[in-house]
Design the sequence.
């Protein structure tokens, strides 16, 4: 995966010379980032890394077909989850940080217990192509997934059943995300569109972007639910204030 650009030597020197973070006029001056730890455990490319919502744990997913649970305090490897037969593209945390869900190229999702004994609780089957993205709703009783089969599926966490399938796009789906109360879903696709869906009825309420080019790689609601952040493959990042009326 591409790495971020390096800072300039002048920028680092100026930050170091301050001693402590502060301000110079109206421009904040910060300490440079400090490398704390390199976590080693995967044997192939890492596709996703996410902190738990309580900040105590870190989960990483990889093309090596595994997901690893790490301590966010001492950076130790807590558990390696195995079970997928192909690489993992995405993972999501439940709101209470008790569960994770992984999305895999083997066309399945798996719900895992993030607490001992770290078991696989459910295998979600129904997609017919790579599962590329996944998220829990805020109450964490539902999971939404997006796939290369061009569909969105909504799953019941307790039973593992697919409660709704939406034929959402004309190309692979790259991102799915619930809003703050779980009533809406935003989806992004390689077909160049970004759409808002009614999570209960599965109806398309609004198409935010429908340029067909370039592909939309990511879309997410803001924490207050009033905005949607959209990233496209033409190096553009857009914050959209949407209205359904």
Sequence:
């Amino acid at each position: 995966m591409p790495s971020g650009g390096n800072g300039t030597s002048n920028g680092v020197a100026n930050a170091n010379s301050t001693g402590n973070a502060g301000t110079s006029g109206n421009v904040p001056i910060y300490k440079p980032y400090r490398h704390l730890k390199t976590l080693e455990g995967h044997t192939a490319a890492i596709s996703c890394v996410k902190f738990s919502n309580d900040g105590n744990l870190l989960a990483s997913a990889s093309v090596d077909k595994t997901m690893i649970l790490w301590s966010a305090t001492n950076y130790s490897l807590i558990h390696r989850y195995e079970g997928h037969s192909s690489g993992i593209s995405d993972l999501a945390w439940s709101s209470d940080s008790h569960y994770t869900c992984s999305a895999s190229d083997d066309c399945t999702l798996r719900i895992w217990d993030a607490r001992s004994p770290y078991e696989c609780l459910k295998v979600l089957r129904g997609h017919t192509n790579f599962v590329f993205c996944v998220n829990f709703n805020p109450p964490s009783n539902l999971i939404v997934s997006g796939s290369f089969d061009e569909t969105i599926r909504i799953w019941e966490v307790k039973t593992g059943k697919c409660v709704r399938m939406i034929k959402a796009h004309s190309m692979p789906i790259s991102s799915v995300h619930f809003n703050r109360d779980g009533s809406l879903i935003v989806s992004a696709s390689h077909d160049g569109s970004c759409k808002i869906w009614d999570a209960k009825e599965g109806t398309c309420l609004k198409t935010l972007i429908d340029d067909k080019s370039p592909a939309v790689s990511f879309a997410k609601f803001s924490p207050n639910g009033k905005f949607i952040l959209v990233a496209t493959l033409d190096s553009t990042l857009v914050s959209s204030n949407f209205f359904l009326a």
